[in-house]
Write a structure and sequence with these properties.
The chain is an alpha/beta fold and 245 residues long. It contains seven helices and twelve strands. The chain starts with a strand and ends with a helix. The chain binds NADP nicotinamide-adenine-dinucleotide phosphate (NAP). NADP nicotinamide-adenine-dinucleotide phosphate binds next to strand 2, helix 2 and helix 3. It comes from Caballeronia catudaia.
Length: 245
């Protein structure tokens, strides 16, 4: 059977993994939860760079790689692209469409951490929803600010920062309550796309709050690109069916 290697770490990837059986492999970096109820094989941890992934593709006789990593996990996507080219294995990618600003949105782009800090200078109660990066800057919080940081980390925070260790999806009611409780006056976000974490944008819109949006990284091309899990699964099932003949 032609083996598929699915690179995951997102809800889309998990949905695809649920449609795969052994001997296909679902691969996770190991930062989050590892599902124990999948019919396909699960492996956890990095491959050891491009060379390690090339060896893995060869040793495990992988016939197709599907990159369903997060849009900001650019290193893994670049490694997958380079390794597949080297090993002559086709690469498919799930590229979740970015959120688009709607009427009433006040989005400001930032390309890096410095840009984020500059754009939130005049605010007092920022809500960070872009992962762990703010945790490395807790000692730099200006006296005029209190940060609320939502990320997958049980960090204790400090007198100027509250950490919320929570995993999406997040709904409107919960986000409104969080904005009230934390007295949020600006939101900092990745443009992740998808439904699971978009409620914060609706709450910012209804309250007229600015959203500082971290620019998406450039991602490499793939042989085929899909916008969601359902389309990817359809194509996979067709590919598996025809490639076995
Ligand atoms: P990254 O910077 O692109 O990757 C860092 C390294 O982690 C890669 O070089 C690779 O190590 C390993 N890695 C990443 N994804 C892997 C996978 N699916 N299977 C095996 N190894 C993997 O990624 P990141 O931004 O740290 O994100 C790590 C994981 O969390 C990704 O799988 C991503 O889908 C998920 N995630 C990321 C974000 C985000 O905002 N970045 C949000 C939600 C989920 P080697 O070089 O050793 O192979």
């Amino acid at each position: 059977m032609n083996r598929v290697l699915l690179l995951g770490g997102t809800g889309d990837a998990l949905a695809i993994a649920r449609g795969l059986c052994a001997p296909h492999v679902y691969s996770l970096a190991g930062l989050g939860r590892v599902p124990a109820d999948l019919a396909c094989a699960v492996r956890v941890g990095g491959f050891g760079g491009i060379g390690g992934l090339v060896r893995y593709l060869h040793d495990e006789k992988i016939a197709l790689v599907v990159d369903a990593t997060h849009p900001y996990a650019a290193q893994m996507s670049r490694h997958a692209h380079a390794a597949c080219a080297d090993a002559r294995v086709p690469l498919w990618a799930v590229r979740r469409p970015a959120w688009q600003p709607q009427a009433g949105d006040d989005w400001r782009d930032a390309s890096d951490w410095r840009g984020i800090v500059e754009r939130i200078e005049s605010y007092q109660r920022p809500l960070f929803t872009l992962g762990r990066e703010p945790l490395a800057h807790l000692d730099e919080i200006p006296a005029s600010q209190h940060w609320t940081i939502r990320c997958l980390d049980a960090h204790p925070g400090n007198e100027r920062a509250s950490i919320i260790d929570a995993r999406g999806p997040f709904d409107l009611a919960g986000e409104r309550a969080l904005f009230d409780r934390a007295r949020v006056d600006v939101v900092i976000s990745k443009n992740s796309g998808g439904r699971a974490t978009e409620a914060k944008l609706a709450v910012a819109r209804e309250r007229g709050l600015a959203v500082v949006m971290l620019t998406r990284p450039a991602l490499p091309d793939a042989d085929r690109t899909f916008g969601d899990a359902a389309g990817t699964l359809d194509a996979l099932s067709h590919w598996l069916h025809t490639s076995e003949k």
